[in-house]
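Can you give me the bound-state structure? Components:
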Amino acid sequence: MNWITRLIEHPQAILRKDSATPEGLWVKCKGCSETLYKKEIMRSAMVCPRCAHHFRISVEERVALLCDSGEYQAHDQGLQSKDPLGFKDKKKYRDRLKEATKKAGNQDALCSYMGKIKGQEVSISIFNFAFMGGSMGSVVGEKIARGMERALEKKCPYLLVTASGGARMQEGVLSLMQMAKTSAIAAKLQEAKLPFVCVLTDPTMGGVSASVAWLGDIIIAEPEALIGFAGPRVIEETVREKLPEGFQRSEFLLEKGLIDDVVDRREVRDYLALIFSQLTQRPYAH
Amino acid sequence: MIPHSYLEFERPIAELTVKIEELSSMGRAADVNIAEEVQKLSQKRDKLLHQIYEKVSPWQICQLSRHPERPYFFDYVEHLFDDFQELHGDRAFADDQAIVGGLARFHGRSVMLVGQQKGRDTKEKLKRNFGMARPEGYRKALRLFKLAERFDIPVLTFIDTAGAWPGIDAEERGQSEAIATNLLELSRLRVPIICTVIGEGGSGGALAIGVGDRLLMQQYTSYSVISPEGCAAILWRDRAFAEQAAQTLKLTAKDLLELKLIDEIIPEPLGGAHRYPKEAAAILDKRLQDNLNHLMILPEDKLLEQRQQNLRQLGIFQS
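Here's the bound-state model for the whole set.
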């Protein structure tokens, strides 16, 4: 069975209201400007069949794409952000949280699963960019920690799919410290010799990039994803130079030797299954 | 000591100081009236200093944490340590001058020092990139942490940076990877680590040398996930709201102690470390000694267990 049949079998995964899928029957591709029949893109993992432009996809779409047919259960769904600083800019953080929940579900910016990828049990965490830009606050940090701990407990690989603007400003230094917290547990995965793979997707920046995202044993990125520490605008303002073409894109990172590979979304599942089987020295189920 | 530059909110103190200086130079001690007046004004100035510093706002603390005359890492190296030997470079690319490290003696005990250095004059500021490190700076720091671990030498870090350098070169050489690796390795380094914020604690660039067994902050320093200006630019779309951002970000030592994110506030002399650097150093000396003595008696496993437990517990949420 491949991803096409899996998506067809589980249309609910892609037809949910909170899906990141653009609305309407026809979609204009940002890559080639071609007007495409939406169902056609959906059938190809939200990748443009003409130019391979990767549309952003929802967490539900992602987990359905990655896992064996229906073989995943959600975990740690009850964790909710508090407002420990009483943070307020133009809006209150509490109100932003409410809005984000309405828009992107009540899972904060990360969803956790136990799933099977070609029969291999994997603890999976997937960032939800639709929830406050996938920013990492206390809840995201704790969910990553618990996801890693589930891998430790089940002695299985840990998979992290990132999409984040960075640390969540509204939780101040508490957010910053999630970088240290998640990195410390990543060390335990290393010591337990459990594979930790990161899939970087568009965008992965700031505090998430400079912590857990770059601690995978294997780090791959989807094509043309924006990935880096400082945002391009900040860099431009600081160095007062025009940024080179393709700067901070996946292919640029590959060229600079910073990631293991750039992998088309339609190939990620196979890639993961193979790498897990290699690292755990098991046969690969084709 | 009389600082050369005054912050906006210190202006009344500056005005009085100028008056005192004028009067003193006018009459010399012979004139009893002038001497009396000078004394009166000096008392008034001290009182004013007290009043102003007693209720400095978070935004004012941000400014103090960046004060151009605030003692920097090298000033504390001079006041607190003997036999400092600087160790250069990351053994791979360059010697990043924004982060300085080396071995030294602290009350007779070998210690590894790593700190950010902003630079005092224009030339040094440029050389040190205003204390904003590139990946090779963090990799140098990591090399020194590992060296310390190999020889059972405790690590003292001194945080003073606006942040990691946001430049094209830094991105090309893996700024994210360098910071992330330090976080992971510091969490399991098998020697005591004490981190002290001595000025600006600028986000990930500060944290990359800021994970340890103790996190201390001097009284007029700041530690934040983003600069108030940056936060204001994003959330208010106007940097002019930096003062409000500083207020709500909870970036002062007092706020962070209340949130249990730091272990201790190191008091500064009235009027700040930039006015009385020697006195500030003496207080820091004592606090570092106490904390280090405490950590040195812990068995290695206990030390690591405590550190990792503390890291695990970071965060406030509803379950």
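A couple of observations. The CA atoms of residues 164 and 192 of chain B lie 24 Å apart. The longest strand of chain B covers residues 193-202.
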